[in-house]
Each structure stands twice: as C-alpha cells, then as structure tokens.
Amino acid sequence: KQETNAGLHSETGFLRFFPDPGLVPHGGRLELTATHPFGLCEIDEGTYDADSFDVWTRYQGLIRTTTAKSPLVTEIRRKMELKVLLDGRVEMTYVVDMATDRSDTQTHYRSVLQKIPSARE
C-alpha cells in the first residue's frame, strides 16, 4: 500500500533443482511449490540455466481452498534473469505473470534488484 509502504503480496514456497547431466553445472529442470495467504497452492515446473529460470503452472497445478474468492487465479508464470551490467553491477529481474477467471495473462508484478557493492569491493 502506498500510504503505509506495506507489501501487497506474500507467498511461501520451495524451489527444487534437477540438473540435466548434459548441461551440468549450467542447467536442468526446476520445480516450484508455493502457498498464498488468499487460499491458493501452486505447483510450477520449468527449466533453468546459469543465469535464468522460467516456470509455469502445468497439469492443473493450482489448488484453492473452498473459501477462496473471485477473481480466481487460473495460471501463473515466473521468470528470473541475472545480468551483469556494463559497469560491472549485477542485476536480477523477477517477473510474475498471472491469469484469472476475469482476465487473460498479464504481468502481476515485476521487480528489479541490483547488488550494492560492499565496502570491500
């Protein structure tokens, strides 16, 4: 919320990495499980490599409680990318796209994080 600077989104989950022997140590398959406080449990699958991942809900990977209210989430896709900028700083971009029973897939949130060098760097 802008007035209080409080976050509007939270979730808890786990990432499980399954390296591909042909791509080790640089990539493979990825599973993500997450729960949301509005009554949604999510299972995503996708791929990762050395500097990115892309996971999305597959095989009916969304389950909700009986008290979940509309709009109901019908699809989620998460993408993360790491980049080294020209000045040497590292930047991570994280995007979550979401569809509901009322809307097509659209960006739900996007964050860009930059590593701040320590005094030793």
Notes on the structure:
It comes from Oxyrrhis marina. The protein is mostly beta strands and 121 residues long. The protein has one domain (12-114): Lipocalin (Beta Barrel). Helices cover 0% and strands 63% of the residues. The protein contains no helices and seven strands. It has strands spanning 12-19, 27-36, 40-49, 52-64, 73-84, 90-100, 103-114. It has a seven-stranded antiparallel β-sheet with strand order 1-2-3-4-5-6-7, with no helix packed on it. A hairpin with an 8-residue loop joins strand 4 and strand 5. The radius of gyration is 17 Å and the shape is globular.
The H/E string reads EEEEEEE
CATH homologous superfamily, by name? Answer: Calycin beta-barrel core domain
Q: Any low-confidence stretches, pLDDT <50, length ≥5?
A: none
Please indicate the percent range of residues in DSSP E strands (runs of 2 or more). over 45%
CATH architecture type: Beta Barrel
Q: Report the CATH topology name.
A: Lipocalin
Total strand segments:
7
Tally of separate helices: 0
Instruction: Write down the domain tally.
Output: 1
Give the strand order, joined by hyphens, for the main sheet.
1-2-3-4-5-6-7
* Helix content percent band: under 10%
CA radius of gyration is 17 Å
Largest sheet: 7 strands, antiparallel
Silhouette = globular
- The average pLDDT score comes to 89
Which CATH class?
Answer: Mainly Beta
State the separation between the terminal residues, measured CA to CA. 35 Å
Structural class by helix and strand composition: mainly beta
Protein name: THAP4-like heme-binding domain-containing protein
Organism: Oxyrrhis marina (Dinoflagellate)
Catalytic activity: peroxynitrite = nitrate
Domain THAP4-like heme-binding: 5-115
